[in-house]
Amino acid sequence: MTALVIAEHDNSSIKPATLNVVTAAVQCGGDVHVLVAGASAGAAAAAAAQISGVAKVLHVEDAGFAHGLAENMAAQVLAIAAGYTHILFAATASGKNIAPRVAAKLDVGQISDITKVDSPDTFERPIYAGNAIATVQSLDATKVVTVRTTGFDPAAASGGAALVESLSAVAASPKATFIGSEIARNDRPELTAAKIIVSGGRALGSSEKFTEIMTPLADKLGAAMGASRAAVDAGYAPNDWQVGQTGKIVAPQLYVACGISGAIQHLAGMKDSKVIVAINKDPEAPIFSVADYGLEADLFTAVPELVAAL
Amino acid sequence: MKVLVPVKRVVDYNVKVRVKSDGSGVDIANVKMSMNPFDEIAIEEAVRLKEKGVATEVIAVSCGVTQCQETLRTAMAIGADRAILVETTDELQPLAVAKLLKALVEKEQPGLVILGKQAIDDDCNQTGQMLAALCDMPQATFASKVEVVDGKAKVTREVDGGSETISLMLPAVITTDLRLNEPRYVTLPNIMKAKKKQMDIVKPADLGVDVTPHIKTLRVKEPPQRSAGIKVPDVATLVAKLKNEAKVI
Q1: What global pTM score does this model have?
Q2: Helix (H, G, I), strand (E, B) or coil at A227
Q3: Which is it for strands A293-296 and B230-232: parallel, antiparallel or unpaired?
Q4: Which of A172, A206, B46, B227 has its CB 3.0 to 4.6 Å from that of B58, i.e. a possible disulfide?
Q5: Residue ranges in chain B whose pLDDT is less than 50
Q6: Residues 242-261 in A contacting B (C-alpha not used; CB under 8 Å)
Q7: In which band, very low, low, confident or very high, does the pLDDT at A186 lie, cut at 50, 70 and 90?
Q8: Where are the alpha helices (DSSP H) in A162-263?
């Protein structure tokens, strides 16, 4: 029994999500191999070899892997899939993009977003945006899974001494080409990876007030900024800030909800946060039913006060 | 160019589902069902492509029970020209749906297949990518902008931390993210018009597809419940609690 983990990397280093996936792979019970497919990714392969619990690193070089295009990545995984009982990806934008292509070509079902390994073929995963937890069993010989990183502790990034083996690359597909990327270069952490999130709701009343009230709090806490669907629909905050069932699912250490009433679809996106703070002037707001600390107050005075007190 | 848009009938996003007491699943009897929100965005995008003169026909497809006809009527009220229901009461998992859709792609030969990135019931996020792989088509998942020029689709997609733009040779598969568009409101005249549009019904066996599940659900349970914490009287107490009790700042 051997598991293959598809590493996520920027060619020079391994992204943290891969460490959580290695932990899930170890729990599947066999040896763990890591595939590093990239362009000039020698440093990433060397870093993968250091990860505790990894027995072997497979390093493949080709320009076609430079931007992680799903067509090329999936073809490479399929080229080496035969020896593995488990193929694991992080449930990130990249992993979700590639994994189903691999599963379909192997004619196996995919198990998405696992949060627990019960046995080598049985896993837990959230459904209905986390409102129910399903225990599912794969009936296939090869298990293709994506791993929700918040469900597993990261493996140690050092201490391992895996063998690095170079493999030849499959031919890149001409059907998809990378044009460019716009990765936000702000100082704020990314919403789904942030340790602290401050989130604003419709009570903020306008885009100007949203910025004026919420930004100082985010700055003070070094937090990512989120918003409720109501705030996004009203145009107070950009779409990609939306936390909820149809937006981003987050699980930070601290989630501060300001002027958010707590609609079901919002709660679905943030209720796995470790500590939830709610600031709302409506004592009946449903957000208080999930908040560890509720402050019944007008956010326009309470939030600046909070900024001053931190 | 035809555009095929698969749509799924799911529990409405405003309904809080309850886990059945026997742990066999969630109770969806007598709850409001709607079109998966991401699929609504997919239909809207296809209809906009038709309005721009890029697409010639928009075909909505749904796989599932008889009631999926309602979902297809909604798709046609938004602007799809006709619909196909692959009717079955069997449990359909993403791989099976992808195989059914592949059979329809072979029949209809669309230039684009646009789907929601995931369904809000099983949260799988698989069908589009699986379809693309089975049809050997390129894919652009989590799309926030789509332009079709010179036989190619230029798609901006949401990735962790920002966005990227890729170019796909057609035919291709696109899956939608929230930012792609805002679906129009369905008007009464359009609902009436949709009732007269063509809807074909086929069975999985007609398409020669085996829909046997590859994954077995052993049980479904409630997530660990979060209980309400405490109310704090003022900001100073809140800060003190966060520092000393929760130790998160």
Answers
A1: 0.92
A2: strand
A3: parallel
A4: B46
A5: none
A6: 242, 245-247, 253-254
A7: low
A8: 207-221, 229-233
